[in-house]
Design a protein that fits this description.
Oligomer: single chain
Number of strands: 5
Number of helices: 7
Low-confidence stretches: none
Mean pLDDT: 84
Radius of gyration: 17 Å
Order of helices and strands: HHHHEEEHEEHH
Structural class: alpha/beta
Strand content: 15-25%
Helix content: 40-55%
Shape: globular
Length: 188
């Protein structure tokens, strides 16, 4: 990817995702204050703690959008970040219920683990083909509530990060809600 191709892609992203970083922050703070979806809460944690989890990230380009124009049937990427090196980092998130027990739940967890890796690797391939980006300029990441994913990423060249459900909930409860609520109210 040349600098011109990167600029073209960044311009495309800004067209289809025109919200500022501050607007996206306010959205995620609203998710913390009024949690109604566990996956969104996990995504809020990722966005608000991106520098600690994925320090190479410079700017969020896309959130929950298809990186392939309007072809949402080909998959949406949870997050696409521009890195400080000028690469793109595709991050898929998955809230995996690690507290549920039983054989059915173990199978469900394993299915979710496999699915999140499959998603990010498939998106990397489609992204490369559609935008004519060299594979080495596309990095992949997975962020879940399941620490069991850590070793799976090594063989696939996928950076894996996780937070346990209890820590996610503690973070949500301790997040400065007064500031978050006032930001959400000011926004609307």
């Amino acid at each position: 990817m040349t600098a011109n191709e990167l600029n073209k892609f960044v311009s495309y992203c800004r067209r289809i995702q025109p919200q500022t970083q501050e607007d996206i922050k306010k959205f995620f703070e609203g998710v913390i204050v009024f949690p109604y979806d566990k996956e969104l809460l996990l995504q809020a944690y990722l966005f608000l703690n991106i520098k600690e989890l994925f320090p190479s990230c410079a700017e969020l380009l896309l959130f929950e959008k298809s990186p392939i124009a309007d072809y949402t049937d080909l998959g949406k990427c949870d997050f696409v970040y521009l890195t400080f090196k000028g690469n793109l980092l595709l991050i898929e998130t998955k809230f995996i219920d690690t507290e549920a027990t039983g054989a059915t739940e173990r199978k469900r967890r394993n299915k979710h683990r496999n699915k999140v890796f499959e998603q990010v690797i498939t998106l990397k391939s489609r992204f490369s083909e559609y935008w004519d980006i060299r594979l080495e300029q596309l990095e992949c990441g997975v962020f879940t509530t399941d620490s069991e994913i850590a070793w799976r990423g090594n063989d696939m060249n996928v950076v894996t990060k996780s937070i346990c459900i209890n820590h996610l909930e503690q973070w949500r409860k301790s997040y400065n809600k007064t500031d978050a609520i006032s930001n959400v109210i000011k926004h609307y």
